[in-house]
Structure to design on (233 residues):
Protein backbone atom coordinates (compact mmCIF):
# COMPACT_ATOMS: atom_id res chain seq x y z
CA UNK A 1 0.00 0.00 0.00
CA UNK A 2 1.36 3.41 -0.88
CA UNK A 3 1.53 5.60 2.15
CA UNK A 4 0.25 9.14 2.20
CA UNK A 5 3.76 10.47 2.92
CA UNK A 6 5.09 8.86 -0.25
CA UNK A 7 2.27 10.28 -2.35
CA UNK A 8 2.89 13.70 -0.86
CA UNK A 9 6.63 13.46 -1.53
CA UNK A 10 6.11 12.32 -5.13
CA UNK A 11 3.73 15.19 -5.67
CA UNK A 12 6.18 17.71 -4.22
CA UNK A 13 8.99 16.23 -6.31
CA UNK A 14 6.95 16.92 -9.46
CA UNK A 15 5.84 20.39 -8.43
CA UNK A 16 9.13 21.44 -6.80
CA UNK A 17 11.74 19.07 -8.21
CA UNK A 18 14.84 18.83 -6.10
CA UNK A 19 17.88 16.66 -6.55
CA UNK A 20 20.84 15.56 -4.46
CA UNK A 21 23.54 18.26 -4.23
CA UNK A 22 26.16 15.54 -4.43
CA UNK A 23 25.17 13.36 -7.39
CA UNK A 24 22.04 14.86 -8.94
CA UNK A 25 19.85 11.84 -8.09
CA UNK A 26 16.21 12.60 -7.27
CA UNK A 27 16.03 9.72 -4.79
CA UNK A 28 15.97 11.74 -1.63
CA UNK A 29 13.39 12.79 0.85
CA UNK A 30 12.00 16.24 0.73
CA UNK A 31 13.97 17.68 3.70
CA UNK A 32 17.31 16.38 2.43
CA UNK A 33 19.90 18.03 0.22
CA UNK A 34 22.00 14.86 0.04
CA UNK A 35 20.98 11.31 -0.82
CA UNK A 36 21.81 8.34 1.41
CA UNK A 37 24.47 7.09 -1.01
CA UNK A 38 26.33 10.39 -1.02
CA UNK A 39 26.17 10.69 2.78
CA UNK A 40 27.53 7.14 3.09
CA UNK A 41 30.38 7.89 0.69
CA UNK A 42 31.71 10.86 2.66
CA UNK A 43 34.94 10.02 4.52
CA UNK A 44 34.11 9.94 8.24
CA UNK A 45 36.90 10.28 10.80
CA UNK A 46 35.08 8.71 13.79
CA UNK A 47 37.09 11.13 15.92
CA UNK A 48 34.05 11.67 18.19
CA UNK A 49 34.71 8.22 19.65
CA UNK A 50 38.44 8.60 20.29
CA UNK A 51 40.30 10.29 23.11
CA UNK A 52 43.54 11.79 21.81
CA UNK A 53 42.37 11.95 18.18
CA UNK A 54 44.41 14.14 15.78
CA UNK A 55 42.18 17.19 16.31
CA UNK A 56 42.64 16.98 20.08
CA UNK A 57 46.38 16.58 19.60
CA UNK A 58 46.43 19.78 17.53
CA UNK A 59 45.47 21.69 20.69
CA UNK A 60 47.67 19.91 23.22
CA UNK A 61 49.80 22.47 25.02
CA UNK A 62 47.90 25.31 23.37
CA UNK A 63 44.50 25.33 25.03
CA UNK A 64 42.77 23.19 27.66
CA UNK A 65 39.88 21.41 25.96
CA UNK A 66 37.54 18.69 27.19
CA UNK A 67 36.64 16.88 23.93
CA UNK A 68 37.27 17.74 20.28
CA UNK A 69 36.45 16.18 16.92
CA UNK A 70 36.08 16.84 13.21
CA UNK A 71 33.49 14.65 11.53
CA UNK A 72 34.84 14.31 7.96
CA UNK A 73 38.18 14.40 6.20
CA UNK A 74 38.50 17.25 3.73
CA UNK A 75 40.49 16.52 0.60
CA UNK A 76 40.82 18.42 -2.65
CA UNK A 77 38.77 17.42 -5.71
CA UNK A 78 36.43 15.41 -3.50
CA UNK A 79 32.68 15.35 -2.95
CA UNK A 80 33.32 17.05 0.40
CA UNK A 81 35.07 19.93 -1.34
CA UNK A 82 32.14 20.26 -3.75
CA UNK A 83 29.68 20.33 -0.85
CA UNK A 84 31.73 22.86 1.12
CA UNK A 85 31.77 25.09 -1.95
CA UNK A 86 27.97 24.84 -2.27
CA UNK A 87 27.55 25.57 1.42
CA UNK A 88 30.03 28.44 1.72
CA UNK A 89 29.91 30.19 -1.63
CA UNK A 90 26.63 29.22 -3.32
CA UNK A 91 24.21 30.05 -0.52
CA UNK A 92 23.16 26.44 0.07
CA UNK A 93 22.13 26.85 3.69
CA UNK A 94 19.88 23.76 3.76
CA UNK A 95 22.87 21.60 2.86
CA UNK A 96 24.75 23.10 5.82
CA UNK A 97 21.82 22.31 8.10
CA UNK A 98 21.84 18.68 6.99
CA UNK A 99 25.62 18.46 7.56
CA UNK A 100 25.08 20.00 11.00
CA UNK A 101 22.47 17.34 11.83
CA UNK A 102 24.97 14.64 10.78
CA UNK A 103 27.50 16.17 13.23
CA UNK A 104 24.80 16.22 15.90
CA UNK A 105 23.99 12.51 15.49
CA UNK A 106 27.71 11.62 15.63
CA UNK A 107 28.14 13.58 18.87
CA UNK A 108 24.95 12.10 20.32
CA UNK A 109 26.00 8.52 19.60
CA UNK A 110 29.48 8.96 21.11
CA UNK A 111 29.78 8.59 24.86
CA UNK A 112 31.88 11.72 25.01
CA UNK A 113 30.86 15.41 24.64
CA UNK A 114 28.67 15.00 27.72
CA UNK A 115 27.12 17.79 29.79
CA UNK A 116 27.44 20.44 27.11
CA UNK A 117 25.31 23.48 27.98
CA UNK A 118 25.39 25.49 24.77
CA UNK A 119 26.74 25.75 21.22
CA UNK A 120 28.89 28.71 20.13
CA UNK A 121 29.53 29.29 16.42
CA UNK A 122 32.98 30.65 15.61
CA UNK A 123 32.15 34.23 14.59
CA UNK A 124 32.79 35.41 11.07
CA UNK A 125 34.00 38.89 10.13
CA UNK A 126 30.86 41.03 9.66
CA UNK A 127 31.71 41.85 6.02
CA UNK A 128 32.06 38.16 5.17
CA UNK A 129 28.81 37.26 6.87
CA UNK A 130 27.03 40.05 5.01
CA UNK A 131 28.43 38.86 1.69
CA UNK A 132 27.56 35.20 2.36
CA UNK A 133 24.19 35.92 3.91
CA UNK A 134 24.93 33.73 6.93
CA UNK A 135 27.72 32.47 9.14
CA UNK A 136 28.35 28.86 8.10
CA UNK A 137 29.30 27.94 11.69
CA UNK A 138 25.91 29.22 12.90
CA UNK A 139 24.12 27.10 10.29
CA UNK A 140 26.06 24.01 11.47
CA UNK A 141 25.14 24.90 15.07
CA UNK A 142 21.48 25.10 14.11
CA UNK A 143 21.69 21.60 12.58
CA UNK A 144 23.48 20.21 15.66
CA UNK A 145 20.94 21.92 17.88
CA UNK A 146 18.04 20.16 16.14
CA UNK A 147 19.55 16.84 17.26
CA UNK A 148 21.02 17.71 20.66
CA UNK A 149 18.35 20.26 21.69
CA UNK A 150 20.96 22.74 22.93
CA UNK A 151 20.80 26.53 22.70
CA UNK A 152 22.94 28.34 20.12
CA UNK A 153 24.67 31.42 21.56
CA UNK A 154 25.13 33.89 18.72
CA UNK A 155 25.93 37.01 20.69
CA UNK A 156 28.56 36.11 23.25
CA UNK A 157 31.64 36.66 21.11
CA UNK A 158 32.33 38.66 17.94
CA UNK A 159 35.14 39.24 15.50
CA UNK A 160 35.85 42.95 15.21
CA UNK A 161 36.67 44.11 11.70
CA UNK A 162 39.52 46.58 12.30
CA UNK A 163 40.79 49.13 14.73
CA UNK A 164 42.19 52.63 14.32
CA UNK A 165 45.71 51.78 15.47
CA UNK A 166 46.11 49.24 12.69
CA UNK A 167 45.81 51.71 9.85
CA UNK A 168 49.54 52.49 9.85
CA UNK A 169 50.62 48.86 9.60
CA UNK A 170 51.19 46.94 6.38
CA UNK A 171 48.31 44.97 4.89
CA UNK A 172 49.61 41.51 5.67
CA UNK A 173 50.62 42.44 9.17
CA UNK A 174 47.28 44.15 9.69
CA UNK A 175 45.46 41.04 8.51
CA UNK A 176 47.49 38.85 10.85
CA UNK A 177 46.70 41.20 13.64
CA UNK A 178 42.92 41.04 13.18
CA UNK A 179 42.75 37.38 12.12
CA UNK A 180 43.23 36.21 15.69
CA UNK A 181 41.18 38.83 17.47
CA UNK A 182 37.90 38.04 19.17
CA UNK A 183 35.87 40.10 21.57
CA UNK A 184 33.56 38.85 24.31
CA UNK A 185 30.25 40.67 24.49
CA UNK A 186 28.32 38.88 27.22
CA UNK A 187 30.76 37.02 29.48
CA UNK A 188 28.22 36.49 32.27
CA UNK A 189 26.00 34.44 29.93
CA UNK A 190 28.69 31.75 29.62
CA UNK A 191 29.99 31.69 33.20
CA UNK A 192 30.17 28.12 34.62
CA UNK A 193 29.14 26.61 31.28
CA UNK A 194 30.51 23.80 29.14
CA UNK A 195 30.55 25.24 25.61
CA UNK A 196 30.86 23.47 22.29
CA UNK A 197 32.69 25.80 19.89
CA UNK A 198 31.76 24.96 16.29
CA UNK A 199 33.38 25.77 12.94
CA UNK A 200 33.34 24.35 9.42
CA UNK A 201 36.95 23.28 9.14
CA UNK A 202 40.05 22.91 11.29
CA UNK A 203 43.50 23.18 9.72
CA UNK A 204 46.23 24.64 11.97
CA UNK A 205 43.72 25.37 14.71
CA UNK A 206 45.00 28.95 15.13
CA UNK A 207 41.60 30.64 14.76
CA UNK A 208 39.78 28.16 17.00
CA UNK A 209 42.58 28.58 19.55
CA UNK A 210 42.27 32.38 19.56
CA UNK A 211 38.50 32.23 19.92
CA UNK A 212 38.58 29.35 22.40
CA UNK A 213 41.06 31.07 24.69
CA UNK A 214 38.86 34.15 24.77
CA UNK A 215 35.91 31.98 25.86
CA UNK A 216 38.09 30.18 28.41
CA UNK A 217 39.03 33.53 29.99
CA UNK A 218 35.53 33.61 31.49
CA UNK A 219 35.14 32.19 34.98
CA UNK A 220 34.75 28.41 35.13
CA UNK A 221 34.15 27.83 31.41
CA UNK A 222 34.79 24.36 29.99
CA UNK A 223 35.41 24.08 26.27
CA UNK A 224 34.90 21.36 23.66
CA UNK A 225 35.30 21.73 19.89
CA UNK A 226 33.49 20.29 16.88
CA UNK A 227 34.18 20.99 13.23
CA UNK A 228 32.60 19.56 10.12
CA UNK A 229 35.95 18.76 8.51
CA UNK A 230 39.63 18.43 9.17
CA UNK A 231 42.04 19.47 6.43
CA UNK A 232 45.68 18.52 6.34
CA UNK A 233 48.10 21.41 6.79
ZN1 LIG B 1 23.66 11.82 -4.00
Amino acid sequence: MIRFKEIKESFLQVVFPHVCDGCGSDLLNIESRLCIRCVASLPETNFEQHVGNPVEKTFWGRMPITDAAAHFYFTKESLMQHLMHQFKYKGNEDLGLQLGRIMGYAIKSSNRFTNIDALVPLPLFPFKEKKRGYNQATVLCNGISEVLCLPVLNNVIIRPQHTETQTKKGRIERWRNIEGKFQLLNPTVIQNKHLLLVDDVVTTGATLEACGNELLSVENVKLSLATLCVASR
Remarks:
- The two ends are 53 Å apart (CA to CA).
- The chain is about 40% helix and 15% strand.
- The first strand starts at residue 68 and ends at 74.
- Strands lie at 68-74, 118-121, 157-158, 183-184, 194-202, 222-231.
